[in-house]
Amino acid sequence: KLKETHRDILSIENSYQDIKAEQSKLDVLISHSMDHLNDDYHLTFEAAKDLYEQDEPIDTLRQKVKLTKMSIEELGPVNLNAIEQFEEVYERFTFLDEQRTDLREAKATLEQIIREMDQAVMDRFKTTFHAVQGHFSEVFKSLFGGGQAELKLTDDDYLTAGVEIIVQPPGKKLQHLSLLSGGERALSAIALLFALLKVRSAPFVILDEVEAALDEANVIRYANYLRQLSEKTQFIVITHRKGTMEAADRLYGITMQESGVSKLVSVNLNTIDEVLKEEEK
Fold first, then answer.
1. Cα–Cα–Cα angle for 36, 40, 45, rounded to 5 degrees
2. Which are the contacts of 220, defined by CB distance < 8 A and separation ≥ 6?
3. Does the pTM of the predicted model rise above 0.70?
4. Domain ranges of the chain
5. Closest Cα to residue 248, out of 256, 257, 238, 261?
6. Which residues, including other chains, have CB under 8 Å from residue 237's CB and lie 6 or more apart?
7. Nearest CA to 247 among 223, 211, 274, 219?
8. How far is CA 249 from CA 5, 119, 199, 230, 267, in A?
9. Residue 185's closest CA among 169, 163, 162?
10. pLDDT higher than 70, residue 148
11. Which segments of the protein form a coiled coil according to its record (predicted)?
């Protein structure tokens, strides 16, 4: 009986040693797991237990951890300067965003100014166009001794429309300016010029042989109308036509009596009668 008791004691001691060995293994595993938890996740056991209370099976959780690690690895290495780079990029972004806002505000202001200018130009052009249109018809009849003429816009938009000149000299059908003869085109252009001067007179105008293509009858009508406009505008007219010279107040001629030597000759037509009378005496 003593031997059996002794064997039981030995058996118990062996079981105890086995349990201690198993406990040591578990202690090592627990220590390893705690180190792993601290090194990889920066957590203590107590913190992990409080933060992550899971009722799922351990295999499922391990699978989630594995997938999460794979996702992290796919992101690549961690950029330790990311925060500083982000601050630099964000500062640059903020600056550019402010610049973009300023540009948009400036653009809106410029567009408003352009709309106001377009409206002002349209109003002034509309007023001037209709005024010139009325005077053009009157001047045309005076220069041609009859007929009719009109100005037409090619479009309803005053800012983009072109202007067509439609005229009908006496005895002819209404037609476009390009279908007229050279003299008729010249006289029509002169009529438009005089219409512009009647709407907005200029203090000083130079005309360089504008009546060169006109016949004598039209030259006389042109000169007489020029004489009417000279009440508000001073004209310097370069011409070779006798009818234009007769309507002038003063003539200036360039002659070359000697080779290579030019000489200026002037005549005041307003006092020519008095000069002739004195010469007769």
1. 55
2. 243
3. no
4. 130-236, 249-281
5. 238
6. 206, 207, 226, 244, 248
7. 223
8. 160, 44, 24, 10, 9
9. 169
10. yes
11. 96-123
Residues in the chain: 281
User: CB of 219 within 8 A of CB of 243?
Assistant: yes
- Quick one: tokens of 177? 């300016």
Q: Which CATH class is domain 130-236?
A: alpha beta
Could you tell me the two tokens for 60? 């499922």
Cα–Cα distance, 215 to 209 (Å, whole number):
13
Joined together, the tokens standing for residue 268 give: 């005041």
Residue type, 79: N
Q: Is the CA virtual torsion 137, 138, 142, 146 positive or negative? A: positive
- If one counts every other C-beta atom within 10 angstroms of the C-beta of residue 257, the result is 8
Q: Residue 213 is encoded by which pair of tokens?
A: 């293509």
d(CA 236, CA 232): 13
HEC-encoded secondary structure of 111-168: HHHHHHHHHHHHHHHHHHHHHHHHHHHHHHHHHHCCCEEEEEECCCCCCCCCEEEEEE
**Helical residues (DSSP H) of the chain, grouped into ranges:** 2-41, 45-51, 58-74, 82-144, 182-199, 216-229, 242-246, 272-280
